[in-house]
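User: Just a sanity check before I run the rest of the batch. Below are the structure tokens for the first item. I only need the designed sequence back.
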């Protein structure tokens, strides 16, 4: 365990939330630019990266009991943290709380902190089909459940049979998939913050390893050809509205390559916003607003961000 010292003058509840953890990294005033795929974000008062489900639940319940603001994230791959950072505690589940086992012929039981690339490779190794679409997605299992991640006609919710969660009193229970309310980039967990995902059961299908590998290879090549994987981003910037393709709309409006500060509409795929190297969260939100206004004007469509935005704004710089 790596336990930093709480800075003098900090809220004493921070140290209480971190106390007694046996298998976690604990960091104070940690820049979130180091923990998100966007490489953007101000300091988090207390960042806990639990190495076990027990530590995760203990820290989460401690925050609740002391009324310390607390957020739970996966691997930070669809997250924009504002420049003022995050007050209170952030529990980052991935990749510390991870692991998976095969139960029966087609079920994989997976901990929330397991990274999707590891899960996809495990499915291939076990000759199990159903996750080919997820190749190249860098998030965590817990995040994939929360947002019902999907691509190429597949989605995570269709594979989930049950989810193990912790409750605010520290109890643990299983929820059937029909209780989770999966929808397009949506689940019960996008609405409620009183449940923490710990473990997920996935039902896959028996398959031929060579065929599974070939499909994965095809999807990986498609991602590499079409998406700006070489630049920091948080994946698709907007949810897909019915009857429209976001990238095509933005491109048709001449916005490909448009910039606000260091944030840019990708020149490779207009559905992505990338960090050209020095972007702030304020830049990204400014570009999101610009795109929304132009698409509303041009198509009458209200774009909704797929990126999750958290934290506080920093004070405007004085000129």
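Assistant: Here's the designed sequence for the first item:
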């Amino acid at each position: 365990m790596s336990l930093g010292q709480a800075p003098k003058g900090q809220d004493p509840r921070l140290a209480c939330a971190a106390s007694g953890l046996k298998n976690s990294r604990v960091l104070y005033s940690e820049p979130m630019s180091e923990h998100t795929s966007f490489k953007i974000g101000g300091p988090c008062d207390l960042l806990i990266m639990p190495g076990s489900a027990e530590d995760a639940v203990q820290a989460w319940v401690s925050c609740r009991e002391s009324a310390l603001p607390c957020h739970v994230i996966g691997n930070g791959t669809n997250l924009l943290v504002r420049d003022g950072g995050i007050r209170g505690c952030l529990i980052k589940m991935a990749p510390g709380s991870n692991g998976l086992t095969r139960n029966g012929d087609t079920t994989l039981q997976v901990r929330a902190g397991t990274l999707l690339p590891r899960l996809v490779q495990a499915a291939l190794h076990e000759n199990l089909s159903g996750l080919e679409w997820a190749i190249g997605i860098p998030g965590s299992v817990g995040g994939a459940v929360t947002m019902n991640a999907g691509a190429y006609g597949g989605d995570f919710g269709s594979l989930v049979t049950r989810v193990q969660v912790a409750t605010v009193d520290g109890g643990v229970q299983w929820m059937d998939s029909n209780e989770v309310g999966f929808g397009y980039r949506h689940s019960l967990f996008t609405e409620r913050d009183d449940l923490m995902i710990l473990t997920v059961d996935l039902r896959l299908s028996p398959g031929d390893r060579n065929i599974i590998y070939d499909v994965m290879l095809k999807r990986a090549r498609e991602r590499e050809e079409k998406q700006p994987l070489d630049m920091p981003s948080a994946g698709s910037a907007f949810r897909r509205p019915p009857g429209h393709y976001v990238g095509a709309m933005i491109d048709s409006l001449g916005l490909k390559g448009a910039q606000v500060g260091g944030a840019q509409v990708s020149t490779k795929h207009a559905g992505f916003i990338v960090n050209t190297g020095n972007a702030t969260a304020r830049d990204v939100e400014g570009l999101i607003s610009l795109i929304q206004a132009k698409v509303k004007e041009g198509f009458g469509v209200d774009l909704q961000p797929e990126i999750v935005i958290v934290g506080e704004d920093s004070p405007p710089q004085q000129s």
